[in-house]
Amino acid sequence: MSNKRQVYHTNIWEEEAEADNPFAAKAAYCHGYDVYGEILQKASWFEYLYLMFKGERPTAEQAVLLEKLAIALANPGPREASVRAAMNGGVSKAAHASSLMAALAVGAGQYGGSHEVYILMDLWKQCGLDLEIWTNKLLEPADDSQADIWLPMEHSPGFDPNGESCPTFVLQTLEVLTSVSPGKSLNWLQTNREALEEKVGYPLAMSGVIAAAFNDLEMNNHQSSMLYLMLRLPGAAAHAIEQRDVGWKNFPFFSHAIEITNDPGDKGLPTIDGVNL
Fold it and tell me: Are 227 and 71 in contact (CB under 8 A)?
């Protein structure tokens, strides 16, 4: 029987164990910075988040951009499919984790989801700030090689195929993020938005703005798609909690389709398949 010690390999995290408890950390370091002895006292949440993902401290401008981006993403609202998925979990009184997993699953796709951001980050790498290359690539985005997971893109990534004009909140987000960004991608997107919209035939979407912001933060496609999923969870959580108290009768997405066949009236709660409603 082998006595070889099992070791996890990571460049992100290092721990020192307590002398009397090998399962508890005396000190923890994130990319060399003491998390509880230094970061907790001196850093902001967004400085720490950037450090964790990028392995280096952000500049003041990068920290501000990440914070503003997080505010823009924090609650996509009930019009967004991943938030509605969490609301379905909430109104059914499912476990909180179920509501968040529903939001993550629905928000992971390639129509406004994290995979669309993933594809956009690859396009930023290929196209840079070249308008001609962008317009050609947007009309024929490369198909994902994992055909068993992702179907071919049916629209130009970063743009809304169902839109008529660019929504006000997208324009507002683009303006604010551009004003604080230390990079060139957001400024380029703001300058060339109308030309790109004319070429693809529909308006810029939030995913397009956010991908440009991630590019200015020097995030890669994996980091960007993960953060996109994470930073949209606060709104999903808040709406899921709210719906637990609203109740299924006031929930518009399926209550009209439920017919109670054994309603006991004043004698007790109605049930469906033996479950109290």
Answer: no
pLDDT tier at 144, thresholds 50, 70, 90: low
Q: Where are the beta strands (DSSP E) in the chain?
A: 13-18, 21-30, 33-34, 271-272, 275-276
Q: Dump pLDDT digits (tens) for 157-172.
A: 999 999 999 999 999 9
Mean pLDDT of 250-272: 60
Residues whose CB falls within 8 Å of the CB of residue 47, separated by 6 or more in sequence, listed in order: 39, 57, 58, 63
Q: How many helices (H) and strands (E) does the chain have?
A: 12, 5
Number of Cβ atoms within 10 Å of the Cβ of 167: 15
Q: Would you list the domain boundaries of the chain?
A: 13-42, 70-76+108-234
Residue that the structure tokens 């389709």 belong to: 257
In whole angstroms, give the CA distance from residue 40 to residue 61. 20
Residue 233's pLDDT is 97
Q: Both ends of the chain: CA-CA distance in Å? A: 56
Residue 116, sorted as left (phi over 0), alpha (psi -120 to 50) or beta, turns out to be: alpha
Decide if 237 contacts 76 (C-beta within 8 A). Answer: no
Write down the pLDDT at residue 151.
75
Choose among 93, 66, 132: nearest CA to 251: 93
For residue 235, name the pLDDT band (cuts at 50, 70, 90): very high
CA-based nearest residue to 63, from 75, 48, 51, 47: 47
Q: Supply 103's token pair.
A: 């939001």
- DSSP-based helix, strand, coil % in the chain, nearest 5: 55, 10, 35
Residue 240 tokens, joined: 């899921």
CB–CB of 78/84 below 8 Å?
yes
